[in-house]
Design a protein that fits this description.
alpha+beta; 30% helix; 24% strand
Amino acid sequence: MNVSRSQVGIYDRQILTSKGESYFSSVDDYANQLLVRREGTAKLYHFRDEVLCIEIEKFNYDKLKLFFLGLLWRAHVTNHIFFRKVSLGPHEKVIRKMILESNPGYSEDYSVCLGIYRDAPTYGLPIIEPNRVRDGEVNHYKFSLGSFVALIKVDKRPFGEDWSDFLLNPDNPLRYTVLDDMKKEPLYRYIGDRLKGRESS
């Protein structure tokens, strides 16, 4: 996979040659249909009147997992300042090999957990700069991509039991944990305050 480093927008299409980009086109399209267009049929699990979990019975594990591995790897490769906190170290070679071989690995390999904001519209929420997070002893990267959040583990240790039902797994449905309102996030409030300030000036 040939890499050419550049800085073109948040999604940096110039980090790869056209041949390299072809590795991602199919999985990118699939993730867009499933996560952005929300074309899957979903079940909602409630506690009283509150939705706690969203479940999609059928999904393509290989494509979705490879999408997130590709997202993580491209965030590491680009020089764009938005992704400056993503640094994979020795994991880069392993993830790169998995992508080249179209190998999504097992659910424990660079595990992915998904959440969706309770107040998520189809569009209109900001994309927040990804950052490295430590959950107990486990390191992962948090990508807030508009209405949903992806936690991608970069650690040999497993996620805790609290996350086990929400790992991408070829033998289970796709499950989102439902998060608090995006509007409660500090960055969202900061952006709102800035916009209000511009309107009043």
